[in-house]
Amino acid sequence: MDERLKPETAVGVPALGRELGAVARRRARSRLVSSLRANGLASFGVLVLLLVCLSAIFADVLAPHNPRVGDLMDSKLPPAFLPGGDPRFILGTDELGRDILSRVIHGSRISLLVGFTAVALAGFIGVVLGLVSGFYGGRIDDVIMRIADIQLAVPFILLAIAVLAVLGPGIQNLILTLGVAGWVTYGRVVRGQVISLREKEFIEAAHCIGVPNLVIMFRHILPNTLAAVIVVGSFAVASTILAEAALSFLGLGVPPDIPTWGGMVAAGRDQILTGQWWVYTFPGLAIMLTVLAINALGDWLRDYLDPRLKI
User: Fold this and answer.
1) What is the CA radius of gyration of the chain?
2) Residues 6+ apart with CB under 8 A from 171
3) Contact 181/156 with Cβ under 8 angstroms?
4) CA atoms in the 13 A half-sphere facing the CB of 274
5) Is the pLDDT confidence value at 8 over 60?
């Protein structure tokens, strides 16, 4: 019997395929890390975002004081590095004697929770509606796109304020409002991708062999749109964090007893004339650095996933 036809020789083919797949995955990870290291701004974004995530996860351990409880005897203390500062309060205290550093650390939880959860909800709604709209076209496409046009006619922040004024403040209502109000961008991007993909040869072949429409949409078309969705989502996280800060500043976001960056900035506006700049400066810096880090990471991700830049 020919050695090439022996069963034990053929058994090695799947193992070889798995080994080649593992090598390809290792090379892809290596290219990803190399590209990230070559982009200094993206590396800075990863570092800042990692620090913010770790502070949110381990806030109870890292925070030196209770963020909700203060002592009026320690009211309005400047940061420890300024004259009159107390070493117990590195970034100073607010008008109620609460530690600014502890409140900034705990405030990262709300910003990240609202940012990522609202973007996930908006992405899910937008991707599903975009798939249906682009795949079926006709009246379904007209109805979905006209709803998107109506929503785009109303400014995003004004729509969020109107909805939260009816539903009331709260984390759940805030996430729901920002998620529902932010689906349009995903829907339009996915719809454009689907319209260009549904005429491709592999989609026509799937139709010819009787593959159901749902399988075609979610197994063959959706994976080819994920790169654009990931890029849009990375930028949307930053804008959602800013929207949460703005709504908390207006008193329509998270309840005032829960520390948030936007709420801290809002509470510090009364201290502008009295000179307690640290009350609003440090949470404002936290918002700025987090948004900058996410935007830098999203910009790198867009370039990395764009096949035209790899030619």
Assistant:
1) 25
2) 110, 113, 114, 254, 258
3) yes
4) 13
5) no
CA separation, residue 283 to residues 3, 72, 220 (Å): 72, 21, 44
Three-state DSSP string of 242-293: HHHHHHHHCCCCCCCCCCCHHHHHHHHHHHCCCCCCHHHHHHHHHHHHHHHH
Distance CA 133, CA 306 (A): 24
**Residues 56 and 158 occupy one common structural domain:** yes
Give residue for tokens 């030196």. 64
Identify residue 259 by its one-letter amino acid code.
Answer: P
Domain count for the chain, please give it.
2
Q: What is the CATH number of the domain that holds 296?
A: 1.10.3720.10
E strands of 135-232, at which residues? Answer: none
Asked if residue 142 and residue 33 are part of one domain, the reply reads no
pTM: 0.77
pLDDT digits (tens, 9 = 90+) for 161-213: 888 888 877 888 888 888 888 899 899 999 988 988 888 888 888 888 888 88
The two three-digit tokens of residue 91, written as one number? 């970034």
HSE of 53, CA atoms in CB hemisphere, 13 A: 10
Is residue 139 domain-shared with residue 243, that is, in the same domain? yes
Question: Do 84 and 54 have their domain in common?
Answer: yes
Taking CA 156 as the corner, what is the angle to CA 151 and CA 157, rounded to the nearest 5 degrees? 145
pLDDT tens, residue by residue, 61-70: 888 888 888 8
pLDDT at 269 over 80: no
Residues 12 and 145 in one domain: no
Range of the domain at 16: 1-38
20 with 141, same domain: the answer is no
CA dist 298 and 103 (Å) reads: 27
Cα(282)–Cα(271) distance, integer angstroms: 13
* Dihedral sign computed on CA atoms, order 222, 226, 232, 236: positive
